[in-house]
Amino acid sequence: MRWRQFFTPIKAFNVGEAREYIAGRNPEDVTILDVRQPKEYRKGHLPGAKLIPLPELGDRFHEVDPNKPAIVY
Amino acid sequence: MMQDNGFRDVYNLSGGIKAWNGETAVGPAEQGLSLFEGRMSPEESLLVAFSLEQGLRDFYLLMLPKVTSDDVADIFQRLANIEIKHQDRIFKEYVNVIGRAISRQDFEQRTMKGVIEGGMTTEDYLAMFNPHLNSPGDVISLAMSIEAQALDLYQRAAGTADIARTKSLLMDIAGEERGHLNQLAELMDRIS
Predict the structure, then answer these.
(1) Strand, coil or helix: A49
(2) A36: in domain
(3) Which of B76, B40, B34, B92 is nearest to B180 (CA)?
(4) What are B64-110's pLDDT values in tens digits?
(5) How buried is B30 (Cβ within 10 angstroms: 0-12 exposed, 13-18 middle, 19+ buried)?
(6) Taking a contact as any Cβ pair under 8 Å apart, which residues of chain A between 9 and 28 contact chain B?
(7) Which terminal residue of chain A, N or C, has fewer Cβ atoms less than 10 Å from its own Cβ?
(8) What total of structural domains would you count in chain A?
(9) CATH code for the domain of A55
(10) Best of B1, B2, B36 to mutate (most A CBs within 10 Å, chain A)
């Protein structure tokens, strides 16, 4: 199966880039979005991360400001 | 998915939470990637949908001998079987849309033409994510990413379909893909 034609690449941060990006902004100016399951979130998550499990994301976009940059994991 | 809903600056954290905790990054996480751009005719949407269902089925069958958990193997087998039903429905709808008879073989040849050019193989895709195949969590997480892509595809295709029955079919398939995603999420919860 050839997959690439199904996906549009988006930007990615490595850990160092993400830390630098977050550190350079006020916490309220960037959304950190955790799309894992609640059990995984409870075991550990980035400080300030908002939990919206991936299966629910399509119905809960209104909970996140689209005008702010978002780091997703 | 997010970019389709108005988010302009979206960044994947490569390697996810594991990398954040200091473990080795395993390449870019693809969750949340948008689907390919451009408007598709209903016919093209169905050809792509059929191809994606085949790819999903191939993926699940490829995973089957590689997982050690009976639970995971069972759900992968069931998901693979469901994709066959999706393909049958897509083919039937394609015939309705073009308004003339076409053999399944000719149809499937058309789908192959559309997906061969310059892409990645499933093995390439696995190598990019590098899931630990003895870790059901890693494998399920990868499957959820792919199901999310499928869900996006059908929602986009439904949004651009000009024919009502095609839109309806694609929305139905999207709903089923959401069901797959929920099944995988429940399985993830059970093993976490």
Answers:
(1) coil
(2) yes
(3) B76
(4) 887 887 877 887 788 788 888 888 988 998 898 889 999 999 998 88
(5) buried
(6) 9-15, 18, 21
(7) N
(8) 1
(9) 3.40.250.10
(10) B2
